[in-house]
Design brief:
The complex is a heterodimer of chains A (222) and B (247). Chain A is an all-alpha fold. Chain A contains nine helices and no strands. Chain A has helices at residues 2-19, 22-41, 45-67, 70-77, 80-85, 91-120, 128-153, 159-186, 192-221. Chain A is elongated. With 247 residues, chain B is an all-alpha fold. The chains are: A mainly alpha (222), B mainly alpha (247).
């Protein structure tokens, strides 16, 4: 079972690698969106410092959102989703493997890029730790919640727009606690509460999201 | 519960309930509005603006209550494949979304004179806005599928996932100390509102509930008839095709 699970992650990583560019595109989009803000609101350092946390988090959230619609779509189109459903492991584990692979190809690269953007946005030096920890805990939650939305809209007309409408409201709690962790750290307060909230959301979604997404995928496979 | 999975039996029950719910809605809303708007005393701090409460509070309660009902009937529909539960969830969504919108609108009108602003990004206001978007996403998901059974199940899963927002809204005013006041109606020590304002408010809450039930019955009835019409049309088309093949 563990072997199949790891092979699934490996398969998705290989696919992402051979097709190339998925992570790079997400990072490029992330950097582009963030760099729009200094152009939009003006380059004054004190202004940038104040909006840094929010801008970086919102841009990361949008990059994840943008990459979600391919999570199951390609597998549905070439029929491999039917094969995955026939595997001897539960469909929810297949979903979990795909969500982990999605995080490794988008969430993790975004997290690693974030400190660099913090530098561009004049983020306060005390806040980098909170930004990194927050994104490490928050972006897997985004991938998992996104898996539900992607599974619900796979094979649906105008699925991409619908996916955004469904998933964005569910992303808001992650955004709120992610940003407030960074802001608390920048002002010298303890970030424990925010980090614990982010961990709680991750632990909750890691249980609920694969099951809900597996139910939804079964609809597409009928 | 399974008795009423039969549409005919459900329609009979609905027809029996409808006159009562319509009468209760008309009486309570009428009496509550007149009492609340003309006879209840103005608040010693808020003056006449307190009367917005008679619409705002019932609408907020119904927005959450309708969602809870939608989530419960979605669970019933998913677990027992209950046909009417699906229709109840589908019919509830636009009503709940409207209550949610009315709550946000009246809250905004109330916020301007009291807080000095139409909108603040306060925990309760934000979570209520998220709820409106979840309602809209739910309705859009129903529209996205051609196959009604698939649409029903996908929407039911989304309704259950979105239900996580309910406790967040309910307790937001206690978890985060924000501009919106904490609960004053349903508390451990009983209501904290003076009886002169409490009675018209309770009338309005009962009226809103009865109004929801009335509209829900109309909408579910329309859905059942729509499905029957479609099945009859398809049967007729089949017969027509068979006759043509015979010739």
């Amino acid at each position: 079972m563990t072997h199949t699970f790891l092979m699934l992650i490996r398969r998705d990583l290989l696919l992402a690698h051979r097709q190339g560019g998925a992570s790079l595109l997400a990072i490029a989009f992330f950097v582009l969106v963030v760099s729009l803000f200094p152009l939009g609101v003006g380059p004054a350092p004190e202004m940038l410092e104040r909006i840094a946390a929010g801008t970086i988090w919102v841009a990361a959230l949008l990059s994840v959102l943008l990459s979600l619609d391919r999570m199951f779509q390609a597998d549905l189109e070439d029929g491999s989703l039917d094969q995955l459903a026939l595997l001897p492991i539960p469909l929810s584990l297949v979903v979990l493997a795909k969500a982990i692979a999605h995080w490794l190809t988008t969430g993790l690269p975004l997290t690693l890029t974030a400190p660099l953007l913090g530098l561009l946005m004049q983020l306060s030096p005390d806040a980098y730790g909170a930004l990194l920890i927050g994104m490490l805990l928050g972006t897997p939650t985004l991938s998992l919640i996104g898996a539900i939305g992607a599974a619900l809209t796979v094979g649906v007309r105008r699925g991409g727009v619908l996916l955004t409408l469904i998933v964005t409201p569910l992303y808001i709690p992650v955004l709120i606690f992610g940003v407030s962790a960074v802001e608390a750290a920048a002002q010298g307060f303890s970030t424990t509460a925010h980090v614990l909230f982010l961990s709680a959301m991750l632990s909750g979604t890691i249980v609920i999201a694969p099951i809900a997404a597996a139910w939804s995928l079964k609809l597409a496979l009928d | 519960m399974h008795r009423f999975a039969n549409p005919t039996r459900f329609l009979r029950l609905a027809a029996a309930v409808l006159p009562f719910s319509a009468a209760v809605a008309a009486l309570c809303l009428g009496a509550g509005l007149v009492w609340g708007l003309f006879f209840a005393p103005p608040d010693y701090q808020q003056g006449d603006t307190v009367r917005i409460m008679f619409i705002h509070v019932p609408a907020a309660m119904m927005a959450m209550g309708v969602y809870a009902g939608m989530a419960i009937s979605s669970a019933i529909a998913l677990i027992w494949r209950h046909a009417i539960a699906d229709l109840i969830a589908k019919a509830s969504a636009p009503i709940g979304a409207t209550f949610c919108f009315i709550c946000l609108l009246t809250g905004s009108l109330w916020g301007k004179p009291m807080w000095g602003t139409w909108w603040v990004w306060d925990a309760r206001l934000t979570s209520m806005l998220i709820m409106l978007f979840i309602y809209l996403g739910y309705m859009a998901l129903w529209q996205a599928f051609d196959d009604q059974t698939k649409a029903a199940r996908a929407a039911a899963i989304l309704a259950l996932v979105g239900a996580i927002n309910l406790p967040v809204i309910k307790f937001s005013v206690e978890w985060w100390n924000t501009l919106h006041q904490p609960a004053s109606l349903i508390t451990m020590d009983g209501p904290k509102i003076h009886s002169s304002l409490l009675w018209p408010l309770l009338l309005m809450i009962v009226g809103f509930g009865a109004y929801y039930l009335t509209v829900l019955i109309f909408r579910v009835r329309a859905e059942v008839h729509q499905r029957r019409t479609r099945m009859l049309r398809m049967a007729q088309a089949d017969r027509h095709a068979a006759m043509q093949a015979a010739e």
